[in-house]
């Protein structure tokens, strides 16, 4: 690798200097390198940008020396700068690669990534957080250090980037994307969309990141070990000026997605169902809007606008954990449905929980600082902290998952808990019937989320 790399560099410096047409080398230099999972964990999408158009997008990669070259012959997409994408397919499982990308007009430096195994019998680790800015990104040095120590198989950034990606004609977004290279060029950086991405119909989010599926990263799912992750946009409930279409498309996708992931063969392989979206259903912060009202729009929908909420849907399909951000704090709930705590038991609330567990993790650090809490800990809330920091998840196996919250302020873990289930079964409304003996399609729902949703035809 090194030798090849140097040869390239020499070639670049000596041969290309003369043939340049106007623009300088720097204009073709790849920047903002980041990774994401493609359709499986064996497919990685590499994304980067150049100031000027180059005629090829190339990645060279291998275990030690360059073994493969992947070229995307489609033109890079012009979005302020030129955005390049190359998908590295059918990578070898449990293998670490080195890679660099660019074209003969300029190559990136060398990075690495490790490909996990595709099946469910291993224990993936992730870092999860939301609300990280370009400035005051207090968690970033700790996350970079963790990533370089190979602690994670992926990172989830649950909405609100840079503050904002589009600011100063996107220059702030460019700086942010360069800043997270320390993480995102080494492990898949999986994202969801937040309110700070709303400008220009979320286009900076949609163009800069490359998530699986066909929705430009607004909703998608991926498998990692025993977990099925489902990402979605909470912003479809708030930005109706962009139309009902994003809400309608997402709702029908979510229903279908959850039904599919509950098919016995799928749920048995991947019993853990984790959702992530930006704005929470529950929170106990003292801000005026989100946390004080019980009829939270994400939770129960908005009847005046004919929008269906998500709590009942997620509950009925046995979602295990719902991860949120938006509040600049950390908060963990007891198993919870419709403001009712449904502990597995009083002594072991998270063993066979009877409802989803909510985690709010939006304290990665940004210019808006922390959000404080109001009043005493509500009955549904188990732990909360204003410290800056991020969440770590280890999905140990099909019956046990471990979460912990790392506080950057205290440089230590301030909360940890296990969720476990004795059987590979969700806590359906009708969970006392044998779940698998029932056809998924025959499960009946209350009228509140019938499919006859007027705005979506
Ligand atoms: C890219 O290709 C076009 C047409 O083939 C050519 O005009 C242009 O000079 C090329 N640009 C670079 C940077 O090589
Ligand atoms: C905004 O983008 C979404 C797709 O992401 C599209 O469905 C919708 O129609 C767009 N809205 C407007 C007003 O362009
Ligand atoms: C939620 O609880 C309220 C009472 O607190 C009740 O009126 C409502 O029907 C419940 N909703 C569901 C979907 O169970
Ligand atoms: C749930 O479990 C926790 C921990 O044992 C306990 O403090 C809390 O009171 C329980 N809540 C209910 C409603 O049982
Ligand atoms: C799953 O992990 C838990 C916690 O480490 C362990 O106690 C349990 O035996 C494991 N189950 C299996 C089937 O390996
Ligand atoms: C199952 O739950 C329903 C509703 O809570 C209840 O009416 C029914 O008796 C339960 N069935 C069994 C077998 O426990």
* Ligand names: 2-acetamido-2-deoxy-beta-D-glucopyranose
> What would the average pLDDT be, to the nearest integer?
90
Query: Order of strands side by side in the largest beta sheet?
Result: 15-16-17-20-24-21-25
Instruction: Choose one word for the global shape.
Output: globular
The count of DSSP E runs of length 2 or more, i.e. the number of strands, is 28
Q: Which residue ranges are poorly predicted, with pLDDT under 50 across at least 5 consecutive positions?
A: 3-18, 429-452
Compute the number of helices: 9
Signal peptide: 1-23
GO molecular function: acid phosphatase activity; metal ion binding
Protein name: Purple acid phosphatase
InterPro entries: Calcineurin-like_PHP, Metallo-depent_PP-like, MPP_PAP, PAPs_C, PAPs_N, Purple_acid_Pase-like_N
Keywords:
457 residues; disordered N terminus; 9 helices; binds 2-acetamido-2-deoxy-beta-D-glucopyranose
Task: Describe the structure in brief.
With 457 residues, the protein is of the alpha+beta class. It is built from 9 helices and 28 strands.
Question: Your description of this structure?
Answer:
It is a single chain. The protein is of the alpha+beta class and 457 residues long. 18% of the residues lie in helices and 29% in strands. Strands 15-16-17-20-24-21-25 form a 7-stranded mixed beta sheet, with helices on one face. The protein has a 6-stranded mixed beta sheet with strand order 14-12-10-26-27-28, with no helix packed on it. Strands 3, 4, 7, 8 and 9 form a 5-stranded antiparallel beta sheet that branches. A hairpin with a 4-residue loop joins strand 27 and strand 28 (412-420). The radius of gyration is 22 Å and the shape is globular. The model is unreliable at 3-18 and 429-452 (pLDDT under 50). The chain binds 2-acetamido-2-deoxy-beta-D-glucopyranose (NAG) (6 copies).
């Amino acid at each position: 690798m090194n030798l090849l790399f140097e040869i390239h560099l020499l070639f670049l410096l000596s041969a290309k200097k003369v043939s340049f047409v106007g623009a300088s080398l720097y204009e073709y230099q790849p920047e903002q390198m980041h990774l994401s999972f493609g359709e499986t964990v064996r497919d990685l999408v590499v994304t980067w940008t150049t100031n000027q158009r180059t005629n090829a997008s190339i990645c060279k990669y291998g275990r030690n020396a360059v073994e493969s070259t992947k070229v995307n012959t489609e033109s890079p997409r012009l979005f302020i700068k030129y955005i390049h994408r190359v998908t590295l397919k059918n990578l070898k499982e449990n293998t670490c690669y080195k890679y660099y990308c660019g074209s003969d007009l300029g190559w990136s430096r060398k990075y690495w990534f490790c490909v996990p195994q595709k099946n469910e019998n291993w224990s993936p680790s992730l870092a999860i957080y939301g609300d990280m800015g370009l400035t005051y990104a207090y968690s970033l040095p700790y996350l970079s250090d963790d990533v370089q120590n190979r602690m994670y198989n992926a990172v989830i950034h649950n909405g609100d980037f840079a503050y904002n990606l589009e600011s100063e004609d996107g220059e702030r977004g460019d700086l942010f994307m360069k800043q997270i290279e320390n993480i995102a060029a080494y492990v898949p950086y999986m994202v969801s969309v937040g309110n700070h991405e709303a400008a220009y119909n979320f286009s900076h989010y949609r163009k800069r990141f490359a998530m699986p599926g066909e929705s430009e990263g607004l909703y998608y799912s991926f498998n990692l070990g025993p977990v099925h992750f489902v990402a979605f946009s909470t912003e479809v409930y708030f930005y109706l000026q962009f139309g009902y279409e994003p809400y309608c498309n997402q709702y029908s996708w979510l229903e279908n997605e959850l039904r599919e992931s509950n098919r016995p063969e799928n749920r048995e392989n991947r019993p853990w169902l984790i959702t992530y979206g930006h704005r929470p259903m529950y929170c106990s912060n003292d801000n005026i809007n989100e946390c004080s009202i019980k009829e939270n729009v994400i939770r129960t929908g908005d009847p005046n606008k004919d929008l269906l909420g998500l709590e009942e849907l997620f509950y009925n399909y046995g979602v295990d954990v719902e991860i949120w951000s938006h509040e600049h704090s950390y908060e963990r709930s007891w198993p919870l449905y419709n403001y009712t705590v449904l502990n597995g038991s009083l002594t072991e609330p998270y063993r066979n929980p009877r409802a989803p567990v909510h985690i709010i993790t939006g304290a990665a650090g940004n210019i808006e600082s922390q959000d404080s809490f109001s009043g005493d800990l509500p009955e549904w809330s188990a732990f909360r902290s204003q410290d800056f920091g991020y969440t770590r998840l280890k999905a140990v196996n099909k019956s046990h998952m471990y979460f912990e919250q790392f506080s950057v302020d205290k440089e230590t873990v301030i909360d940890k808990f296990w969720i476990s289930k004795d059987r590979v079964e969700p806590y359906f409304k009708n969970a006392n019937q044998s779940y698998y003996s029932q056809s998924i399609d025959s499960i009946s729902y209350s009228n509140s989320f019938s499919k006859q949703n007027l705005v979506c035809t």
